[in-house]
Amino acid sequence: MLIPAETHLSEVGRRARENGAWVKALTEGLDDEALLWQPEPRRWGVAECLEHLVATGSAYHPRIREAIENGAPCEADPAYRPRLWARLFIHSAGPRGRLPLRAPRPFRPPEARPDVAERFMSQQDELLSFVDAARGVDLQRARVPSPVSRFLVLTLGEVFEVIVAHQERHLAQAQAVVERPGFPQR
Asked: What is the rounded CA–CA span in Å between residue 133 and residue 136?
């Protein structure tokens, strides 16, 4: 399915803003104990989910910046279409993906800190600035190499979609933690 690049960037921006609002709503009123609470040992709580997203952003954002800076400009609004294997990757990274994978080393959350929501929001602002800066860049030709494997290279359009889908996955996971019995009440 071909999507005009501007439509794709607008949709990615909308989803990124919604994810930011979700984090604000999810963490509003949580004290440090609730934010750092884990449902079981070695199971991620709200803070670990957000730390994972911050770690992922820290690994990808410099690569996205470079792809935008070095990306081929485009005169018109070219169509965007994720490649078949990228669509599978986007799906597996998203909320309906069912691959129970251990996060690769660069994406593993460090010890959770209570300021994680603020750090996530700061990164989200940076992501939105990248989406704006990508207007006029060929989303199909600009490439973003994976921080994990030199064999995984996404187009700029694909990486934006992977990031927001991945955020939605772990925000749903964090939401489920808040709704669990035993979660410290707000």
From this structure: 8
